[in-house]
Design goal:
single chain; alpha+beta; 8 strands; about 15% helix
Length: about 170
């Protein structure tokens, strides 16, 4: 049976902001909540919604989120030539991926820019990168401004997850 007047929601976070801790701090406005630092679910009475929004916003403002610096945790450096379909299939044996079992992140160094341009009204960056005889295409989401910073022939390092797109 659906409860009338109950609002439900969920949230996802970034490294440095513990959503479960945030909900604990404003728990008096909530009916139920649960989850972990990076993902939560919540339910509250509709009449508490505005109070909840005010309190959660005040809590987040108190965290000085301007000081949070994005971090990328790299699991391994790998040469481009070692990225094969078999290597990706071996990684699939580690599934399912989630908070307690994150998908590995790889660093690939010293790739030469063969082509570069901004796409989607300048929002994103599209690259063709080369290492020895191998080429890959890459998209840098929300990095379109770098199309005017880098030039053909420049060398870059990239960080990425490996997925098998062939299903």
């Amino acid at each position: 049976m659906k409860k009338i007047g109950i609002c439900k929601g969920s949230g996802r976070s970034i490294q440095g902001i513990d959503l479960h801790e945030a909900l604990s701090a404003v728990s008096k406005t909530l009916e139920k909540y649960g989850g972990h630092s990076m993902a939560v679910g919540v339910s509250l009475k509709k009449e508490n919604l505005e109070k909840f929004k005010k309190e959660i916003n005040l809590y987040i403002e108190s965290l000085n989120i301007q000081e949070i610096k994005p971090s990328i945790y790299i699991d391994m450096e790998i040469p481009l030539k070692e990225i094969t379909l078999n290597a990706v299939k071996e990684l699939e044996k580690l599934e399912p991926f989630g908070e307690a079992n994150e998908m590995p992140i790889f660093l690939i160094r010293n790739l030469k820019i063969e082509s570069i341009r901004a796409i989607t009204d300048g929002a994103h960056l599209k690259l063709r990168l080369k290492d020895e005889n191998m080429q890959i295409d890459a998209i840098g989401f929300h990095l379109g401004e770098y199309a005017d910073v880098y030039r053909l022939g420049d060398k870059v390092d990239i960080v990425r997850k490996l997925r098998n797109k062939c299903v």
